[in-house]
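A further point concerns the way the authors explain their paired sequence and structure data. Each protein is reduced to its one-letter sequence and a matching series of backbone shape codes. An entry of this sort, consisting of the sequence and the corresponding backbone structure tokens, reads as follows:
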Amino acid sequence: MAAFDYDKARATAERLIAKFGQKGSLLRIRSAGPDYDPVQTSEEFACSFVDLEQSQVHVADTQVQRGDRTVYLSTEGLSITPTLADKVLIGDVEHSIVDLQPLSPGGMVVFWQLQVRR
């Protein structure tokens, strides 16, 4: 039996997100300098994603709040691994990442699923 081709699945995800999604940025904020007087800088990383409303079924869950969004983040051209400390710029609006899960069968990240909040 032939092994599943995760490269092909990743390419399909990248193509669909590029076709039906939008361009945006991941915003990474870094602190430098002494603890008593830190200087914060931010760096934007270009990305492609699909922005979806959260299902109302999940709003009753403990971590999901009304207004939360689901973002499917493409790996194409993404030069960093997203973290909970990053923010997603949807349009010009910053959204905090509340939860992130890679879809990574077989150890290859096909895309990232994020729960974001304004």
